[in-house]
Each structure stands twice: as structure tokens, then as C-alpha cells.
Write a structure and sequence with these properties.
The chain is an all-alpha fold. The chain contains twelve helices and no strands. It has helices at residues 17-29, 32-59, 62-68, 71-74, 79-100, 102-109, 114-149, 161-188, 191-210, 215-221, 225-233, 240-266. Helix 5 (79-100) packs parallel to helix 8 (161-188), helix 8 (161-188) crosses helix 9 and helix 8 runs parallel beside helix 12. It starts with 16 loop residues before the first helix and ends with a helix.
């Protein structure tokens, strides 16, 4: 009599991070909300730059214009509104999967889960940075052309930190903000809740802190994402304020991603 030994065999192989990244890229660009959000950000940024240029150009002469606005700032006038769009985009990128139940398929394909989360963050950060950079450049050109049409041309000959820092800083802020919103969405798993938290931190918290006339409270407000992000978009030199704003803007999504990673691994989908 012979005994048959059954051995557990494994079918297939682990999904490489490149495959997960490609999957998340496809999912991101097949969502209609992606195009609506990025389109809205473009319209808001370019439109506000146009309106701001018209308003400033109508009341300021060439000499006053040179003192009041720099080329780099022209494209970041609309950052106050475009930040909200990128925050919403980051939140719904992952909460949409929880609401439809598609997240179960994602985690079934990637049982360790963290590669899926990091792939989402990578896709979101790279897209938000490139698109945000393009939007800010387009808004900068629009504002400059508007000034030129009013007989007040803006010179681009000296491309230094005053031009590069606001443009690059604004794009980096939008990218990091979207990753922060993604992490918040992974933690709360509800689109409305994630959006409320992100918008609350961007809009409500600064108003509350600003209304408290206490020196240490005002110092604390400098370390909020709502202060450090726009600070990057308004930077004129790589001074102490710039480095503080840069580190704070990086720290918020980094800490949030650590929390999101812990939640994604421990909770059931």
C-alpha cells in the first residue's frame, strides 16, 4: 500500500511593484473625476491669473508693477483654489475604491497591500507635480501676456530664484498635498470624511488660529500645511523661511502616509 503525499503548490507569482504601478496608473486615468479635477484646476489657475493681472495692471503703472509682483508669482495667484481641487482629487482616488468595493480586488491582487498604497501615492505625486507645474506655467504666461496687452510687458530675461522657486514650489505643494489627501482617504475610507478633513485643515484651521491673538498660537500656525504650502508658492529666496516651509510641507504627507500604511495593513478591506 502506498501513501500519496499532497503538497501545497503555488500558482502564479508575486506581482512586481512595476505591475502594481502600471495598474494604478491605468485606474487613475480611467476615472472621469481625474479629467474633471485637473481641468477645473487649469481653468481656475489660468482664470484667476488673468483676472489678477487685469486688476493689478489697471491700477498700477510699470514701476509700481515691478515692485508689487514678480514673474514667478503670476502663476500662483490661484493656488488658494487649486489646492482644494488637488486635495479632493487625492482623497477620492482611494476612497472611490472603498465605496465601490473595488479595493478588495486590489488587495486580492496585492496581498501585502502596501505596494498598492505606495503605487497610488507615486502615480498621484508624479501626475500632480507635472500637471501642477504645467498649470502654473500656463497661468504665468497668461498673466504675462495680459500685462503685455495693457502696455506693461513683464521681462523673462532674468530667470532666477524669484521665478523658479514660486513655480516649482507651487507644483511641489500641490503634489504633496494630493498625497496627504490620499493618506487621509486611506485612513478614514470615506470620501466625504476625507474631503472634510483636508478642506478643514486648509480653510478652517488657519482661520481659527488666525483669530487667536496669542503669539505662540501664531507661531504654531506657521507649521500647518495651509501656511507652509502657499509659503513655498510665494518663495523668493532659499532662506530660512523657505526651508521651514519645505520641511513642513513634506512632513505632513510623510506622517499621514505612515498612519495610512498602518491602517491599510491592520484593517480588513
Amino acid at each position: 500500500m502506498t501513501a500519496t503525499t499532497l503538497t501545497r503548490t503555488r500558482i502564479g507569482r508575486d506581482v512586481a511593484f512595476g505591475g502594481v504601478l502600471r495598474s494604478e496608473w491605468i485606474k487613475f486615468w480611467t476615472l472621469r473625476s481625474t479629467y474633471w479635477s485637473l481641468g477645473a484646476a487649469f481653468v481656475l489657475s489660468v482664470g484667476i491669473s488673468l483676472l489678477a493681472a487685469l486688476a493689478i495692471g489697471s491700477i498700477a503703472g510699470p514701476d509700481e508693477l515691478a515692485m508689487n509682483v514678480t514673474v514667478g508669482q503670476l502663476g500662483t495667484f490661484g493656488i488658494f483654489l487649486t489646492q482644494l481641487v488637488f486635495g479632493v482629487l487625492g482623497a477620492i482616488f482611494i476612497t472611490g475604491e472603498y465605496s465601490t468595493g473595488m479595493i478588495r480586488s486590489t488587495f486580492a491582487a496585492v496581498p501585502t497591500r502596501l505596494p498598492a498604497l505606495f503605487a497610488k501615492a507615486t502615480v498621484l505625486f508624479s501626475t500632480a507635480f507635472v500637471v501642477g507645474l504645467a498649470i502654473i506655467v500656463a497661468a504665468t504666461v497668461t498673466g504675462s501676456l495680459t500685462f503685455a496687452s495693457m502696455g506693461q510687458p513683464v521681462e523673462f530675461t532674468e530667470f532666477g530664484t524669484e521665478v523658479a522657486l514660486p513655480i516649482l514650489g507651487g507644483a511641489l505643494f500641490l503634489a504633496l498635498l494630493s498625497v496627504f489627501a490620499l493618506a487621509v482617504g486611506a485612513i478614514v475610507r470615506a470620501g466625504a470624511g476625507a474631503i472634510a478633513i483636508v478642506l478643514g485643515l486648509l480653510l478652517v484651521v488657519p482661520m481659527v488660529l488666525g483669530a487667536i491673538p496669542v503669539e505662540w498660537v501664531q507661531e504654531v500656525s506657521l507649521y500647518t500645511l495651509a501656511s507652509s504650502g502657499p509659503g513655498l508658492a510665494a518663495a523668493q529666496a532659499m532662506d530660512a523661511d523657505f526651508w521651514r516651509d519645505l520641511l513642513v510641507t513634506i512632513a505632513w504627507p510623510a506622517v499621514a502616509m505612515v498612519g495610512a500604511a498602518a491602517v491599510v495593513v491592520r484593517r480588513d478591506a
